[in-house]
Specification:
6 helices, 5 strands, about 40% helix
């Protein structure tokens, strides 16, 4: 600010997370990668040799914004729909957070697995598009959803095998939830 003669920077959480992953996290040996920042709202960040560009996730086949599906409210909406179609007939129980849905998927809850599959299908559209256009070999999952990496990354990797003849490394942000903070410090 001018008042304190201090430069002030404004950066997106996805960009800061990419800086952290590139400098001290899982992408230290990669000069080019795509980071998907997933949570309450979702975006992506293309990182190339210390430069980053944040963007949206793109569009689904039906013309709907992908970010509306691949976020907390999108996951909860899909979970609610799946509960109503549940083979056990129990659709009264609803989760109130994405974290709870991910945990239910870990516990093999049918509706949570269906919701996760739908969201992952949408996310894979964005990953494949970016990987093919930009000739990427590495993708990082960051943001609040990184806490669900043990269920999310295998689901993404499995689905990607259907669409990509060449392997694509999908990694959870090694810096975890602190990636934007670490990126801020590094910046």
């Amino acid at each position: 600010s001018n008042m304190f003669s201090t430069p002030v920077y404004h950066a997106h959480a996805a960009s800061l997370a990419a800086i952290a992953e590139a400098e001290v996290g899982s992408m230290q040996n990669q000069s080019v990668f795509m980071l998907f920042y997933l949570g309450g709202s979702s975006s992506n960040c293309f990182y190339i040799i210390r430069q980053s560009q944040v963007g949206d996730l793109g569009w689904l086949y039906e013309g709907n914004p992908l970010a509306k599906l691949v976020c907390d409210s999108g996951l909860l909406g899909e979970y609610t729909k799946a509960r109503k179609q549940s083979p056990d007939g129990d659709y009264s129980h609803t989760e109130t957070s994405a974290r709870a849905v991910f945990e239910a998927a870990r516990q093999c809850d049918w509706a949570a697995e269906q919701a996760l599959e739908t969201v992952v299908e949408g996310l894979v559209v964005a990953i494949v598009w970016a990987a093919n256009i930009l000739n990427l070999t590495h993708v990082v999952i960051a943001g609040p959803w990184v806490r669900a990496a043990t269920v999310l990354v295998p689901a993404i990797t499995e689905r990607l095998q259907l669409f990509r003849p060449t392997p694509l490394v999908v990694a959870a942000a090694e810096c975890g939830d602190d990636a934007p903070l670490i990126g801020t410090i590094r910046l």
